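Technical annex, item 7. During the second reporting period the consortium partners agreed on a shared format for inverse folding records so that results from different sites could be compared directly. Each record opens with the tokenized structure and is followed by the designed sequence. A conforming record, contributed by the partner at site C, is shown below for reference.
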């Protein structure tokens, strides 16, 4: 199996090293990742300047690794250009969860989504970060078990996986769609100039059976996603214009 590994935190992130390490147990692995952090870039692609790639400045044991001056979606395109017949794209492990409404902003998920647009299975993996870096060695067993399940068949599919710091189980979930604040928090820089932070945090508690609920309850959340965003119920009403 040919496994392309990417992320949105950039090639230096310990999360991508952890994911590449586990991925090696499932097949041949190559890493193509952004040269700088591209978190919250969503599904942006670079269209107004050329892309280039260089060998990774850090070593991935026995894995070819390249960095790209582009977005996560660019990296998938570049990776699949450089390496033919990729079977699956793994994106992550993101330093920070990608749950509920934050899926819309996620570069991690967008990379997996880009794979599906190319007709290849895509799996995004994320984990929350506290004051300390995530313990990726501790997560390894659950990352492995989750991938084992998701790589079993070769159906074209898009999965969003979120791992709590201390997983006890793996569950299927739906996306939590609840209000979030999207607040702009003003501040002042050292020179006295105004600056602003865009914050995204949920306003309502998570519904049972959702991705947020699973991670809050120490379970690995696996959400199957689709690219069709059509509102079927509204479409059925077929109101006249
Ligand atoms: Mn990120």
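Designed sequence (site C submission):
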């Amino acid at each position: 199996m040919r496994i392309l590994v990417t992320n949105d935190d950039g090639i230096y992130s310990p999360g991508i090293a952890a994911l590449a390490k586990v991925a090696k147990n499932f097949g041949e692995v190559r890493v193509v990742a952004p040269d700088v952090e591209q978190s919250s870039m969503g599904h942006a692609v670079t269209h107004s300047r050329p892309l280039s790639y260089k060998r990774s400045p850090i070593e991935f044991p026995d894995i070819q690794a390249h960095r790209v001056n582009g977005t996560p979606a660019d990296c998938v395109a570049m990776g699949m250009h450089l390496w033919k017949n990729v079977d699956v794209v793994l994106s992550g492990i993101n330093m920070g969860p990608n749950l509920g409404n934050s899926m819309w902003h996620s570069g991690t998920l967008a990379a997996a989504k880009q794979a599906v647009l190319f007709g290849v299975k895509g799996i995004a993996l994320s984990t929350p970060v506290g004051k300390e870096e995530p313990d990726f060695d501790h997560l390894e067993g659950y990352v492995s078990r989750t991938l084992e399940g998701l790589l079993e068949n070769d159906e074209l599919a898009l999965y969003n996986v979120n791992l709590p710091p201390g997983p006890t189980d793996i569950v299927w979930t739906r996306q939590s769609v609840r209000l979030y604040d999207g607040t702009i928090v003003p501040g002042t820089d050292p020179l006295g100039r105004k600056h602003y932070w865009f914050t995204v945090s949920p306003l309502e508690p998570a519904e049972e059976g959702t991705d947020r609920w699973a991670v809050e309850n120490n379970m690995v959340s696996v959400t199957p996603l689709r690219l069709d965003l059509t509102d079927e119920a509204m479409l059925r009403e077929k109101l006249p214009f």
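Residues 8-9, 39, 94-96, 108 surround manganese (II) ion (CB under 6 Å). Helices lie at 14-23, 72-82, 107-117, 136-150, 211-216, 232-237. All partners now use this format for quarterly exchanges.
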